[in-house]
Request: fold
Amino acid sequence: IACDTSDEAAVTAAAARSQEALGPCDVLVNAAGVLKAASLEDMSLQEWNRVMSINVTGYFLCAQAFGLQILAKGRGALNHIASIAAVHPTGHSGAYAISKAAVSMLSRQLAIEWGPQGIRSNTVCPGMTWTGMTQESYGRPGIAELRSQGIPLRRIGQPEEIADAIVYLASDRSGYVNGVDLT
Reply:
C-alpha cells in the first residue's frame, strides 16, 4: 500500500487497509528515508523540513498507527532503519545525520514506553550500503573502492544484509532485545 509517510491521514488509511487485508500488524519496518546533500549553512528550511518530515515524523506516524495494532495484540516488534550517520555524521549530509539520530532516540523511547506491554523497538544503523539512494555516489569510478578502505570488511554492504538484521530483530530469536541500535 503506497502512502506518503509524512501525511498522518495517509498513514492512518494505510494502516487500516493493511489490517483489513492482512489482519493486525505483528512487525513494523520503518524504512522510508531521504538525503539532501548540503551543508547546514546552505540548507533551506524547506529542505530541512522535508528531510525531517520523512525521516523522523514519518517514522513516528507509522509507529503510532501500526503500533496501535501491535499494542492491541500485546506482542510484536518495531524496527527502524537509521544510519551509521546517527553516531558518525559526515559533512554535507545536511539534516540527514540529525534525522537518523532522532530515529534512534524515537526507537529507544518506544522501547521504554511499550516494552512493558510486550512490544520491542530496535534500530538498525547500516553503514555504507548499496541502495537506490547511494547508487549514484558509489557508481562513480573509484568511490566504492575508496569508501571500502574505511570498513573492516573492505566492502560496501548489500541490502540483503540489512534485511537479515531486520528478520532477526523481528523474530522471536531476539525476544529479549529491546531498545538497541544495531550498527
Observations:
- The longest strand covers residues 76-81.
- The two ends are 29 Å apart (CA to CA).
- Helices lie at 8-22, 45-73, 96-114, 135-138, 143-148, 159-170.
- The first helix runs from residue 8 to 22.
